[in-house]
Design a protein that fits this description.
By secondary structure, the chain is of the alpha/beta class. It has helices at about 35-40, 50-60, 80, 90-100, 115-120, 125-135, 155-165, 185-200, 235-240, 255-270, 275-290, 290-300, 310-325, 335-345, 360-370, 380-385, 395-400, 410-430, and strands spanning about 20, 45-50, 70-75, 110-115, 140-145, 180, 205-210, 225, 245, 300-305, 325-330, 350-355, 375, 390-395. The protein has 3 domains: about 20-25 and about 290-430, Nitrogenase molybdenum iron protein domain (Rossmann fold); about 30-150, Rossmann fold, CATH 3.40.50; about 180-285, Rossmann fold. About 45% of the residues lie in helices and about 15% in strands. Helix 8 (about 185-200) links the parallel strand 6 and strand 7. Helix 10 (about 255-270) packs antiparallel against helix 11 (about 275-290), helix 12 (about 290-300) packs across helix 18 and helix 13 (about 310-325) runs parallel beside helix 14. Bound molecules: iron/sulfur cluster. Iron/sulfur cluster binds near residues 29, 51, 57, 114 and 146.
């Protein structure tokens, strides 16, 4: 752990001024979340009620499955719906009935709102209630919005999980305290966390969302929850309205983040500190060693974050403290101070923290910094690469398994690889 700067008594960036911008933004919409949500809840189906643009976005982001029945689709709102000639609710009921009669494997159906469905004011909440009455107990129908108006792409997961919270069964009032891990994780990462948490001594453990819609975890005032993603503000609010208590912690990215996240759980449940060290130390040592290779590439390199995934602050903390990168500007679409408190305390002072976006002004600041690597959305990556600036697509950080000890080196590699590629290209250009 020698490369990790100990958590200092000072407040890092927690009281630093934040540059707030409300101008033109370059972000994806919340429909993108379907890509990882449909893989997680394996008996759920996501029906986007949207336009052909929405269908193209989701198909190109998720890929078209040839050998498996897909678990997402788009009910296209066409000209007749827009002109009010057809009754959009009748059309929707017809599409849903056809889908569910053909696919008995679907146990939960999400109607996902989009910009077009919001523009024509299609009331998907009422539609979901109506369809649930028709199809329960076989299929529960829920709704949330993935619209791109005033949102960013990770909010799709937040909206989806928040819509699911009211469905969680109530736990008994006298239940022993239990831990709920909140946020989509690849199954392999979920299994790793479950092993550590159980070995530390946590007996009542659940993950939300679950892999099956028939295995929803119970919820109540004896539920303590840990977030795995920093973009779950609505979900957290919905959980707390039902009595759950958040365990404040950094996010489990990198060795330090994962250790402090697990430690927060251990302390909340009063678990034995020595046992915590025994359970986590071998993995901490392995992961720290695995980071050495990427540190060679990343140490001393400068990085600039455009706001996109909402992972920016925890990633900046990881790259700065465990890999020695120099932070310039850390931009995030929304800065949720409560959820990011521990992260902000660990950021070095003197960097620019920004919230929201005015893309032209931010591009000017980025060019002035001339960073070694920029983290940004797809829309900005090509123009920046054309300017000779190395980029990392932020969306890849959400699609890849990056949480926990075993993935720490893979996460660092996502930043080291573009730098290596740029170095090779520069060498080739010099040789020729
Ligand atoms: S929801 Fe809105 S932003 Fe997203 S693909 Fe559809 S039209 Fe575009």
């Amino acid at each position: 752990m020698s490369a990790v700067i100990p958590i200092a008594a000072d407040t890092g960036c927690s009281t630093a001024p934040v540059l707030r911008e409300r101008g033109q933004r370059e972000v994806f919409c919340g429909l993108t979340g379907i890509v990882w949500l449909h893989r997680k809840i394996q008996d759920a189906f996501f029906l986007v009620v949207g336009s052909r643009t929405c269908a193209h976005l989701i198909q190109s982001a998720a890929g078209v499955m040839i050998f498996a029945e897909p678990r997402f689709a788009t009910a296209i709102i066409d000209d007749r719906d827009l002109a009010g000639i057809a009754d959009a609710n009748e059309e929707l009921d017809r599409v849903v009935s056809k889908l569910l009669s053909r696919r008995p494997d679907i146990k939960m159906l999400f109607l996902v709102g989009s910009c077009p469905s919001e523009v024509i004011k299609l009331d998907l909440a009422t539609a979901a209630e109506r369809l649930s009455r028709q199809f329960l107990p076989n299929v529960r129908v829920l709704n949330y919005s993935g619209s791109g108006i005033e949102t960013t792409f990770t909010q799709g997961e937040d909206a989806c999980l928040a819509s699911l919270v009211p469905q969680l069964p109530a736990e008994d009032d006298d239940a022993a305290p239990g831990l709920m891990i909140v946020g989509c994780l690849p199954d392999v990462v979920e299994d790793q966390f479950a092993r550590y948490l159980r070995a530390m001594g946590i007996e009542r453990l659940s993950f939300f969302p679950p892999r099956s819609s028939r295995a929803l975890p119970t919820l109540g005032k004896n539920t303590r929850y840990l977030l795995v993603q920093p973009f779950l503000a609505e979900t957290a609010r919905a959980l707390e309205e039902r009595g759950a208590q958040r365990i404040a912690a950094p996010f489990p990215f990198g060795v330090e983040g994962t250790t402090e996240w697990l430690r927060a759980a251990a302390q909340s449940f009063g678990l034995d500190a020595q046992r915590f060290e025994q359970v986590t130390m071998p993995a901490r040592e392995r992961a720290t060693k695995a980071l050495e290779r990427q540190r060679e590439w990343l140490q001393g390199r400068s990085i600039f974050f455009f706001p996109d995934s909402q992972l920016e602050v925890p990633l900046a903390r990881f790259l700065s403290r465990e890999l020695g990168m120099q932070l310039t500007e850390v931009g995030t679409p929304y800065l949720h101070r409560d959820h990011l408190q521990q992260e902000l305390e660990m950021l070095p002072a003197g960097i620019t923290l920004s919230e929201g976006q005015d893309v032209e002004k931010q591009l000017d600041r980025c060019r002035a910094h001339a960073p070694d690597i920029v983290v940004c959305g797809l829309g900005l990556a090509n123009p920046l690469e054309a300017d000779g600036i190395t980029t990392k697509w932020s969306i890849e950080l959400v699609f890849s398994p990056v949480h926990g000890y075993e993935q720490a080196a893979d996460l660092a590699e996502l930043f080291a690889r573009p730098l290596r590629r740029r170095s090779l290209l520069t060498q080739e250009a010099t040789c020729s």
